[in-house]
């Protein structure tokens, strides 16, 4: 992550944000103190990074004052406010000087705010956001009530680093490396998707986001199909995504990255930090295979990847690639995830994208969802899904140096058509599975 920052320090593609409306009376000083407790309690949020003697170093500061900024936004219309929040979110971090964690409040009137919690991905991940929000809620209540509570960590993030280093050098680490070496050591195909713009010689990480929604009935049917085949919704959606990429590219071998939580030990479950470790799923496709055929194959690939997930992906890149292509992400150019939202209905309702108007009560605060498009261009394409109580949201994050928005919008529709075709008959050959709507077929073939 630090290497990528040094490669493109002006990029905001690894900025992570949590945004929400505060639609009740707010004690601003209590909130500031609650955030100060949050960074006092989590060493990753008060860490900076720099090069010493040619090696990257983390410096954990004993104390770091919270960056807490209030902006008057009372004169801004809704669209202008959203644009303002997005503009602040996109300001890059300085990892050497810090801070790597910032809080921005936009006052819309006396009792209403938009809150932007912004951090660099190097200090946090999706799991961490749930931990932070739970702690923040408790700390704010403590400040309001005058009760002093300390939420202790079982271990610090540095303990995780020591644990990982010990694993790499162990016999178990050698077995993990042997698996990935065998899985990836023959020729690694480069994905060549049809693009709208000339690929830059050096990847610039500019990105944008498109949302789409899956019908709950279709998701329920896909869950039943997955269960009948002895697998999970994640594997079925990943297989469908790789089939879509196969149809778009015409390539038979598809490599897709997917995140693992990296928290296999209980002592790491409550630590804020960057634990995600990507694994590679290698799919082999030809038009004579059926969806069920490739589903069974991908199931085995996923099981193998999960069993060997602890070997750091960056070491795989270092050991397998003699030379990196600066125009592409290494090994895989597409990424897929079915995100587990943090436990607890209160947080779940706020983090599912597209859940417009969702409200939750944090005792002393009333919160409402506030979506912004998060800029991510780390890969050519990222497809993610989030499941809420009444909403199943799909997100395509794409490299805007390669694709126009219109193409990505059509791709969302093609994925939905593909799922419908799979559900119509999972025994269909890949060549028989449709991605075009009836109107698109008519336009392309007749009109």
Summary, kept brief:
With 447 residues, the chain is of the alpha+beta class. It is built from 13 helices and 14 strands. Strand 5 and strand 6 (112-120) form a beta hairpin.
Notes on the structure:
38% of the residues lie in helices and 22% in strands. By secondary structure, the protein is α+β, with helices and mostly antiparallel strands. The chain has a six-stranded mixed beta sheet, sandwiched between helices. A six-stranded mixed beta sheet has the order 7-14-13-10-8-9, with helices on one face. Strands 2-3 form a two-stranded antiparallel sheet. Strand 4, helix 3 (78-89) and strand 5 form a beta-alpha-beta unit. The model has no long low-confidence stretch (mean pLDDT 91).
Number of strands: 14
What best-fitting shape do the alpha-carbon axes yield?
globular
Order of helices and strands: HEHEEEHEEHHHEHHEEHHEHEEEEHH
Q: How many helical elements?
A: 13
* Mean pLDDT level: 91
Work out the oligomeric state of the chains in this entry: single chain
